[in-house]
Structure formats: structure tokens, C-alpha cells
Amino acid sequence: MNFETLSIVSEPKLFTCIKYRLNSSAESLFSSPIDTTSHFSSNGKPISPLCQDELGSTLTKFTDLDSMRLFSKYMIILIGLPAAGKSTVSRHLIKYLQDTKTTAHIRCKTFNAGDFRRKEKKIELTNEQLEDIFDPKNSDKKEEYARIAFNEALQDLDNDICDIGIFDATNSTKLRRKYLFDEIKSFNHNSSSNFSVSPIILHVTCSDKKFIRYNIHHKSFNADYFGKQYDLSVKDFAKRLKQYYTQFVPYTMDEFNHILSYSSPDSHHGTFYFHVANAGSTSTTNIVEYSNMASRETRNLIKALHHFTTNYIVIFGSQYISKVKGFFKVSQVVSSNKLNVKKSFQQLSRLKVLNSIINDSYFKKLKNFHLINNITHKDQ
Ligand SMILES: Nc1ncnc2c1ncn2[C@@H]1O[C@H](COP(=O)(O)OP(=O)(O)OP(=O)(O)O)[C@@H](O)[C@H]1O
Ligand SMILES: O=P(O)(O)OC[C@H]1O[C@](O)(CO)[C@@H](O)[C@@H]1O
């Protein structure tokens, strides 16, 4: 394979470079300059920009093949621990694509493995649960829901109900991810499939303890916990997250390369990786491989995704970060509810409960917290 590293865009953390397949003829699809003001490394310093010239020299000129390949579909595979922000970031992505001229026509549909589970079974907040679905020992049932959700996504793509399927699940293990890529591969090789599906990985990570706390607070009001007591919901979600930490395998460059090595280039437009970390405030890195056959539509989409992830902090992240800051400030809780003392009181007592459950000792017990989040003590 003919690859060349073009640019180092972050510190040598999980993924460190952007790669493009090299092609001799040049036509820049990144016609507007990429705004790099929002690129930050993990130490908060701006990272080196990706020059338009660099990109321009690497991309293929369109041919007639292009029109043949317009009938492509995409599967966005989310990866990330519970409450990392996967569903939120994907909602933002849908909005962003709708608001972008070149991608506004693309129809997105989300397939959430948790929704398929909830249709069948409600969460019971008791320690005596015989079948805790989040206990890795009982993973079979959870795998089944994920398979149902993923296969429904493939079916809807094949039936032209949507153009992008977003598979919303944690996809925490290598085995799961292999399953997903194998399914796409056999879908693409199946002569009765109406379209070819290109996988796009969107990795969403959250290692900031305040963000995690805030996100868990919001999770305690989601569909799993409607009408349930606040402290029990937070405890249950905390237990779930702890279980995920025992099984989560970070997605690595090796795994990406392994996928590339067995995915069939003739049926794919490419394999793509994007990463949003801590609402875009730490390293944001992309790895992109274009197939020679990539259509204009694919390139427009990948360009939009690139812009979305690298500018996430400016477009969506900063608003979230200021909300998190305000959430933990007693003065802001009181002033935002100044006409409603009861509401302020309830919010402050919930904050106390939240801080007492998701405390330092909780974080210490999360298996491989630093390894999974790729942080050193210096970063903390
Ligand atoms: N980038 C963000 N912008 C705004 N709010 C966010 C963001 N990330 C997380 N949140 C907050 O955290 C909560 C949990 O996030 P979300 O449901 O998106 O996580 P998730 O990774 O999809 O979780 P799960 O895997 O458990 O379904 C959201 O309801 C939202 O309040
Ligand atoms: O099967 P996976 O990949 O763990 O992901 C699905 C699970 O992720 C969650 O969103 C995690 O909280 C659950 O609602 C859902 O059951």
C-alpha cells in the first residue's frame, strides 16, 4: 500500500498522524482552507495546521468511475465508554451535516443498541439482579442487541431508507469491532446488496473527571432511569461504567491497520477514523484512507467530518464546557434558580450526592483509567 504520513497533528498519543493514499494527479477537494484555530494538543498548545497544498497534492482527479460509485452508503461506528458523549456528538454531527451545503441532502439515521435493549427489558435497580446485562459475564445478551441494531442499520441502508447509518453503542471490544467490520465486508461482497457500505469510525472519549461527573448526572435521567430515585440511578450508572472499564479495549493504530489489511479496496471508498476527545478540547486526530475510487460525495462527506471533528470545540464543545463549569458552582446554581428556592435546594442536594458517589476513590477504582484514557499523571 502506498501511504505517506503528511502531518503530525497531535502529541504521540493514540493516533498521531493523518494519512492519505498518494495519487499522482492532483485536485484539491478541500477547496476552502481548513480552519485550524481549534486544533489543540493535549497540553492546550495549538497544533500544526494541515496545509491545503499538502492535501491538494494527494488527492485523485475524478473520472467517469465517479458516477458509478455515487451509490455508496456509510456506516458510522461509534466507539466510546458509556456517558462519553457518543449520542450527543452524533446528534451534533447530524445537525452539522444538515447545515453544510455539500452534505445537507445526506439522510442520517441512528441505531442505538441501548434502545433495542430497552424495548425488550427495563433496568431494575437492585443488586440482586440475576442477569445484569452490563456484567461482562452476561455479555451474550448485550451482543445480541448490538447485532440486531447493527443488522437493522445495514438493512435500512440497503433499502435506501438512509444514506448514513450511525451505530450508537460502546463497541468496547476488539471482538465486537471485528464482528462489525466482518458484517460490512460480507454485505459488500454479497451480490444481492444494492449498495456498498464504507465504514467510518467516530471515537468519542471523555477523561476529564468533571465532564464524567456532569455526564453521569444527565444519564441518571435517561430512558433507563425514568421515575427512579436520583441516588440509585447515579449508583447504578457508576456501577455500569465501572464494569465497562474492565472490558473496554482502546482502539489503536494497529487495529485500524489490521482492518485496512483485510478490507477489500475495490468495494470500498475508504476507511476513515475521527476522534473527538473531551468535547474537542484535547487531542483531535484523524486518520483517513481514500480508495482510488472514492466519489465526490464521499470526499465531501469526509471533508465535512474532518471539519466537524477539528472544529468541534468551537462549534459545540465550548458551550458544553461552560455549562459544566457553571453546574459545579454553587453560586451559579443559586443565581440560575433565584426565583425558585426549592429547585436550587434540590439541585444542590443532588450535586452533593453526585460528588459523594463519583468521587476520587471511585475514579481510583476504575480499571486502567489512565491507560484507557491515555493520560499521564502530568496531564491531570
Ligand atoms: N459534547 C457534549 N455536548 C453537550 N453535552 C454533552 C456532551 N457530551 C456529553 N454531554 C452530556 O452528557 C450526557 C451523556 O452523554 P451521551 O448520552 O451523549 O453519552 P453516550 O456516550 O452516548 O452514553 P451511553 O453510551 O451511555 O449511551 C448527555 O445527556 C449530555 O447532557
Ligand atoms: O453493546 P455495547 O457496545 O456495550 O453498547 C450498548 C450499550 O451502551 C449503552 O449506551 C451504555 O450505557 C447502553 O445503553 C447500551 O446497552
Give a short summary of the structure.
This protein is of the alpha/beta class. It is built from 15 helices and 8 strands. The chain starts with a strand and ends in an 8-residue tail after the last helix.
Q: Any idea what the shape is?
A: globular
Distance between termini? 39 Å
CATH class of the largest domain: Alpha Beta
Tell me the series of helices and strands, N- to C-terminal: EEHHEHEHHEHEHHHEEHHHHHH
**Overall structural domain count:** 2
Give the helix level as a range of percent: 40-55%
The tally of strands reads 8
Q: What name is given to the CATH topology of the largest domain?
A: Rossmann fold
CATH superfamily of the largest domain: P-loop containing nucleotide triphosphate hydrolases
What is the CA-based Rg, rounded? 21 Å
CATH architecture of the largest domain: 3-Layer(aba) Sandwich
Strand fraction:
5-15%
Which strands sit side by side, in order, in the main sheet? 4-5-3-6-7-8
What does this structure look like?
- This protein is an alpha/beta fold.
- The strands form 2 sheets. It has a 6-stranded mixed sheet with strand order 4-5-3-6-7-8, sandwiched between helices. It has a two-stranded antiparallel ribbon with strand order 1-2.
- The two termini are 39 Å apart.
- It is 45% helix and 14% strand.
- The radius of gyration is 21 Å and the shape is globular.
- The protein folds into 2 domains: 3-320, Rossmann fold (3-Layer(aba) Sandwich); 327-379, no CATH class.
- The relative contact order is 0.16.
- Strand 1 and strand 2 form a beta hairpin.
- It is built from 15 helices and 8 strands.
- The chain has helices at 52-56, 65-68, 86-99, 113-120, 139-158, 174-189, 209-219, 230-247, 253-262, 296-310, 312-327, 330-336, 341-357, 360-365, 369-372; strands spanning 3-8, 17-21, 72-79, 108-112, 164-168, 196-205, 270-277, 286-290.
- The site of 6-O-phosphono-beta-D-fructofuranose has 10 residues, from helix 4 and helix 5.
